[in-house]
Design brief:
The chain is an alpha/beta fold. It is built from 8 helices and 7 strands.
Length: 258
């Protein structure tokens, strides 16, 4: 119960990593504002949080819309009474060869993965500055530390998240706001299932074989699950990480080592 009395807003919390994070922070004692583009999946996550005995509010909406994310943060603060933790988890992915990337691909990826994170940082910081501080936690990736073939545009967005994390940590420290990022690897989620459908035929693989093959690049030799990421985010959200800021930590079973 390290987060008892705290409030967290988790974006993209309707499924996958975001849902696992929201549930883990609730188990740690936090009340949770659940954001997702899909209001139905957000409500489903909120129901599970209610079953854990925590207060929750559903705040659906598109994080790439700056005005919307500011209103989401305001609603979360109004309904739950505070905002101590902001998890900018929402993101999209794409697999495509570099020479095939289109302007629309870049627009879609950067609007969610980069603009959405920046707007989330801005909105949370505005509230946390008035509230005496807080923790901002961003979704980066192992692909934000090293380029990845077939994922060039996605990788570029995650490098951007790492950069924003460092700059925000420097600028917000005086307001007692820490900013860090988590960098997953190959995680068994619906998102990777969709990527597998695209990559598999290109590589001549059976369903799920591509994900499993990629995951063999990890020294721990297994596919990552959302709870692996959520466990680390729990640390970033809790008091044991109070002296940590500006870091983008890879949690991928040993695929990327720096």
């Amino acid at each position: 119960m390290s987060l008892a009395g705290k409030t967290a807003l988790v974006t993209g919390a309707g499924r996958g990593i975001g849902k696992a994070i929201a549930l883990r922070l609730a188990k740690d004692g936090a009340n949770i504002a659940v954001n997702d583009l899909n209001p139905d999946t957000a409500k489903a996550t909120a129901e599970e949080i209610n079953d854990l005995g925590r207060k929750t509010v559903v705040v659906p909406g598109d994080v790439s819309d700056r005005d919307k994310i500011f209103s989401i943060v305001d609603e979360a603060f109004t309904e739950l009474g505070s905002l101590d933790i902001m998890v900018n988890n929402a993101g999209i992915c794409q697999t495509k060869e570099l020479l095939e990337v289109t302007p629309q691909d870049l627009e879609d990826l950067f609007r969610v993965n980069v603009f959405g994170v920046l707007y989330g940082i801005q909105a949370a910081a505005e509230t946390m500055k008035k509230n005496g501080g807080g923790k901002i936690i961003n979704a980066a990736s192992g692909a934000g530390h090293t380029g990845v073939p077939q994922f060039s545009a996605y990788s570029a967005t995650k490098f951007g998240v790492v950069s924003f994390t460092q700059s925000a940590a420097m600028e917000l420290a005086e307001h007692k706001i820490t900013v860090n990022s988590y960098c997953p690897g190959i995680v068994d989620t619906d998102m990777w299932a969709e990527l597998d459908k695209v990559l598999g035929p290109k590589l001549g693989n059976e369903p799920r074989e591509t994900m499993t093959t990629f995951a063999q690049g990890a020294v721990l030799r297994r596919v990552e699950v959302p709870e692996d990421v959520a466990n680390f985010v729990s640390y970033l959200a809790g008091p044991d990480s109070d002296f940590m800021t500006g870091q983008s930590v890879v949690i991928d079973g040993g695929m990327v080592m720096r």
